[in-house]
Structure formats: structure tokens, C-alpha cells
């Protein structure tokens, strides 16, 4: 155990988050996402598992240490619902609430069509597989920066 770190953050996940640079992306995946096959094509090359944790709980842990790129652009993508691109399922509303809480202000997500999401995910730094069972619980986060202290 380490002080001041969420216990949901494993050593493998902390390594990946620390290794990522500005603009690198992380896929936060639900239990139905092809995490292993997509992860093999990412920079890290293997899936990081958070199987017993919901997507909102996993995101809260991740955002406790990972800066988002929100000052420059929308930095979290959500997978669009097939045939209903404007629909926001409950899981996506919960994720939006976690993002807004972490950022201290509204930081809207942007949508990516399902098949385009898979292709974009292959270019990510890593894939984090959660135990989220609700459909459309897949997101892509863009890492931001931590500014120097005054």
C-alpha cells in the first residue's frame, strides 16, 4: 500500500499512467469490449485489468492521478450508441459526472462511432479493462499536462 493513492490503482496501471506523455490516450473499456485483442495493438501491448471495478469507479481512481487535456480540447471520447448517436446512456452520464468532478467544471465528452472507436483504440497507449457490464461503457481519455509550480 502507498499513502494518498487510491487502492484501485495497481502497479501496472500506475506504470502505464506515469509512462504516458501529453497527448497519449488511454482506453477505459467495459467488460464486453475486445480489450485483449485491441490492447495487443497499443503502445503498451497488453491489457491492464480492473475486472472487479465499475467504469465510474475505475475512472475516479485514474483521474485522481491523471491530468486530462481539457484546457485545450474535449479530452474524453465516448462510444456512440448504434443508430442513436445523440443518446447518452446512464453509464455515460455517470462518467461525465466523474470527469466534471475531477476537473472542477463541466468538461464535455465527444462521441466516436463504434467501429471508428475500435480503430482509434488500437492507436492508444494502453487499454484498461473494467468489470463494467452496462453497454457503451467505453471511453478514450487524452492525457494532459501538469504545469510547473510558480
Automatic annotation (TrEMBL):
One of its GO terms (biological process) is fucose metabolic process. It comes from the Bacteria. Gene3D superfamilies: RbsD-like domain. It catalyses: beta-D-ribopyranose = beta-D-ribofuranose; alpha-L-fucose = beta-L-fucose. One of its GO terms (molecular function) is L-fucose mutarotase activity. Coiled coil: none annotated. Keywords: Isomerase. Pfam families: RbsD_FucU (PF05025). Its EC number is 5.1.3.29. PANTHER family: FUCOSE MUTAROTASE (PTHR31690:SF4). This is L-fucose mutarotase.
Amino acid at each position: 500500500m502507498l499513502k494518498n493513492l487510491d487502492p484501485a490503482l495497481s502497479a501496472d496501471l500506475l506504470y502505464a499512467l506515469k509512462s504516458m506523455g501529453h497527448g497519449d490516450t488511454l482506453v477505459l473499456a467495459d467488460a464486453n469490449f475486445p480489450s485483449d485483442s485491441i490492447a495487443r495493438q497499443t503502445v503498451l501491448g497488453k491489457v491492464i485489468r480492473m475486472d472487479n471495478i465499475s467504469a465510474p469507479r475505475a475512472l475516479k481512481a485514474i483521474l485522481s492521478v491523471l491530468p486530462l487535456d481539457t484546457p485545450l480540447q474535449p479530452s474524453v471520447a465516448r462510444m456512440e450508441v448504434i443508430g442513436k448517436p445523440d443518446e447518452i446512456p446512464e453509464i455515460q452520464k455517470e462518467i461525465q459526472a466523474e470527469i466534471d468532478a475531477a476537473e472542477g467544471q463541466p468538461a464535455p465528452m465527444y462521441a466516436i462511432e463504434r467501429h471508428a472507436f475500435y480503430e482509434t483504440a488500437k492507436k492508444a497507449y494502453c487499454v484498461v479493462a473494467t468489470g463494467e457490464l452496462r453497454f457503451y461503457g467505453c471511453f478514450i481519455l487524452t492525457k494532459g499536462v501538469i504545469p510547473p509550480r510558480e
